[in-house]
Every structure is written in C-alpha cells, then in structure tokens.
Amino acid sequence: MSSSHNHSKATKHQHTGTDDCQHLAQTSFDQLELDILQIARLIFLSFHHPETYAWVNAFNIAEQRYEKPYGATIANAVLTIVNAVCGARDSGLRYHDPQCLICQEYVTPDEQFFVGALHELRLGNKLSARTHVMHLCEGLDECTTFEAMGELTQIIADYYADKTEEPKCFNTSIRYVN
Known about the structure:
mainly alpha
C-alpha cells in the first residue's frame, strides 16, 4: 500500500501523486459511498502503518454513521474487501491520507475503482462493477473481491430497507449470490 502521507516523525506533509487523481466533486459518489471511502482509507492506513491503529477509527466512524448492528458489520465488510484486494494484487494500493483535509478531497484511481464498484453494484450494474473490481485487482483473481463487494452491497441494502431511506434510484431488492 502506498499513501500520500508520510507517517514518520517528519512534520512536513507532502501532497504528491495527485496528477491522476480526481476531485470528489467530480465523482458521482453519494454520501454513503464517501463514508465507505473514508472507512476504507482508514483500513488501508492500518495495513500500511499498523502502529496507527487506524482500523479502530474506521469502526468508530462506521458505528457513528450507521446504527447497531450495521456500523460494525459495514466496517467488517469493508475490511473483508480490503483483505481480498490485498490478496489479489501484486502491487501496493494507492490511497489518500484519511487524516488530511486536502487529501480527503481527492480520489486515487485505486480508490475510484473501489468505490466505483460499490456504486455500480448499488445501481444493479454487475458487469460494470466487475470491471471496476478487475481493475482494482489488477486483472488477477477478482472473484473473492467481487463477492465481498456484493456482500457489502447487500448489507447496505438491508440497512436502508430497515430505515426505508434508500434513494429510489438504487435497487434494494437485488440479492448477490455467486
């Protein structure tokens, strides 16, 4: 994994590698997807720098945003996806520092594929979602990641079915079974 943040004792934070990044305002991600991105970034950070214990913050954010039992379940599903991605890829995964207000405004190509797959699955576009996952997994074994992404999508659909606040453009009746 590689981050745009230097987590060493250096005090200077450098914003590097944003040439191929997109501003979040240019994406079609909704608030839930942006929340998932922040949770994923914290999990990426905890893999890259375990001493930060950033996974604790990921679970805390999920618990604050989504009621029990969904918060921890959503964070765990994101962790499962990250594990699947890391198991499939040969190289590191680029992500932006979840603790930097400037970095948070941009999405790397890897993050775009991650959240883009979730976005497409929520719309019911399985083929497009699988393409995002294939890019995310660098064309390697994407099946586990795609299945895990489908499980997260189902948890989200269940959450909104309980709350009855899911935007009507998303199909909550889709069941993802391989």
